């Protein structure tokens, strides 16, 4: 009995200068046994799952075993080959899942905003197309009105030309008549006194 106690004490001698506790992780690809001492000769307390975060309490330089405290609060020894300083995938998994959920929500939000933006732009485009169609209709109406006005203007211009031509003819005709009447009157006027004188001479005789 005393010899067994002595062996245990000798095994714990390297732990007199034990370092402070540090966070460690069991390798992702294995699960390991948790033992009561720093070698596979000691009794198994249980198993530690692969990737599980543990707290390193110390190590045995001779056997390369590491003393840990697991998530359940158990303290024991595991093979140091199965302990790593980098965070395991299993330990990162919850945060990765949370990041994935956040990313999906962000993508959904982006998709929703993108869809709303597309709907808004589509609505604006349809509105602009309607306004453009109305402008085209108004332009066609203005063109038709312009064509009617131009036709009416041509008709009125033609009437004005005809009226001016007729007025000119009337003026020429009236002027000709007046001139003719004046000439005739000028011819007949000198002849009237002569007849009167002749008649007076006959009466006197």
Automatic annotation (TrEMBL):
<keyword id="KW-0472">Membrane</keyword>
<feature type="signal peptide">
    <location>
        <begin position="1"/>
        <end position="21"/>
    </location>
</feature>
<dbReference type="Pfam" id="PF08239">
    <property type="entry name" value="SH3_3"/>
</dbReference>
<dbReference type="InterPro" id="IPR003646">
    <property type="entry name" value="SH3-like_bac-type"/>
</dbReference>
<keyword id="KW-0175">Coiled coil</keyword>
<feature type="domain" description="SH3b">
    <location>
        <begin position="21"/>
        <end position="87"/>
    </location>
</feature>
<feature type="coiled-coil region">
    <location>
        <begin position="111"/>
        <end position="166"/>
    </location>
</feature>
<protein>
    <submittedName>
        <fullName>Arylsulfatase</fullName>
    </submittedName>
</protein>
<feature type="transmembrane region" description="Helical">
    <location>
        <begin position="171"/>
        <end position="194"/>
    </location>
</feature>
<dbReference type="InterPro" id="IPR016476">
    <property type="entry name" value="SH3_dom_pro"/>
</dbReference>
<keyword id="KW-0812">Transmembrane</keyword>
<keyword id="KW-1133">Transmembrane helix</keyword>
<keyword id="KW-0732">Signal</keyword>
<dbReference type="GO" id="GO:0016020">
    <property type="term" value="C:membrane"/>
</dbReference>
